[in-house]
Write a structure and sequence with these properties.
The protein is mainly α and 134 residues long. Helix content is 78%, strand content 0%. The chain is built from eight helices and no strands. It has helices at 2-10, 14-27, 32-44, 48-61, 66-78, 82-95, 100-113, 116-128. α2 packs antiparallel against α3 (32-44). The radius of gyration is 16 Å and the shape is elongated. The protein starts with a helix and ends in a 6-residue tail after the last helix.
């Protein structure tokens, strides 16, 4: 059923994806992938608070999965919780300093805030870590 929920998500059927992920959670309430998927669907629906809650729960259940951290940070930005998003990026990068996608997104956030030097710093760290096309 989780696969079906992700198919709905990929097809752009976000409302039905939320419903299907919710059913999955009633069967497997400790499965991080389900919270992550529903968080992505809520994000697409611009339901920032629900996306934040689901990405946070996914992060708690699977602390090592960086995509839940990223979903949480971007959702916080969209909900105008900039300082909380910065905190998430900082904690993620302290835990996974070579996670290039987070460095780039963090740099872009700093650029949007007009803090060019910090944005440049994040991009320089990303470049110095030897990124690949993967």
């Amino acid at each position: 059923m989780i696969g079906q929920a992700y198919e709905l998500l990929m097809e752009g059927n976000f409302e039905d994806a939320v419903k299907t992920f919710s059913i999955c959670l009633s069967l497997e309430p400790q499965e991080a992938r389900i919270y992550h998927g529903r968080g992505m669907a809520y994000f697409q629906l611009k339901k920032w608070k629900s996306a934040i809650a689901d990405f946070e729960k996914a992060r708690q259940l699977d602390y090592e999965e960086p995509s839940s951290w990223m979903g949480l940070a971007v959702s916080l930005v969209m909900d105008s919780k900039i300082y909380e998003a910065i905190d998430v990026y900082e904690k993620l990068l302290a835990h996974k300093p070579r996670f290039i996608r987070a460095r780039i997104q963090f740099a872009l956030l700093y650029y949007r805030l007009g803090i060019i030097s910090k944005g440049n710093h994040q991009l320089n760290i990303a470049l110095d870590s030897g990124p690949t096309f993967e």
